[in-house]
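Q: What would this chain look like folded?
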Amino acid sequence: MGDVRWFNFKAADNQRVDLEMSMTDYYGDNKAQIDGALVIGRSNNLDPEGDVLNEVSPRGVEMPQREFFTVRNVRFYNFNWNEAAAIGTCSHCVQPEDFGARTSTIEKLWFDEETVTKRIKWNFPGRAILLDLDGTTTGRGPNSWATPYFKHNDQDGCIVDEVTTVPASLFCDNSV
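A: My prediction, written as structure tokens:
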């Protein structure tokens, strides 16, 4: 996909990812995006006896393997089992020739504190970068950053988050 915008989507109960976009090229900032979605990891629609989600760890939104993707105004509920997470990174990045980090932009994301225990799942190879325009995901203020934790990247202005991400993250303020 390229300059595709998903507005006001609703998704629930998916075994892998609720909303995932793969991009083939760069089409400009704020072009490819998800805006205004409601994402539910596990709803009341599932039969508790045959709940197929018990054995998996889905993500609500999966960031693409390309730069310049935007996710805004999304509400996340019920990602609180196994390693289920509201956000996953780097869709289809498991190819051995894939070497770069991808920067996606996020803003105005809302996580139900009671039912979303993991906000971010850093997928292999762990090279994604999230620019948090308003700080609602990182808690580090406007234009803050989230990246997978690597000790050599830790510096003043960053905190290590081992609670709301899998594996650990660096959340850095805009001075970094």
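The longest strand covers residues 102-107.
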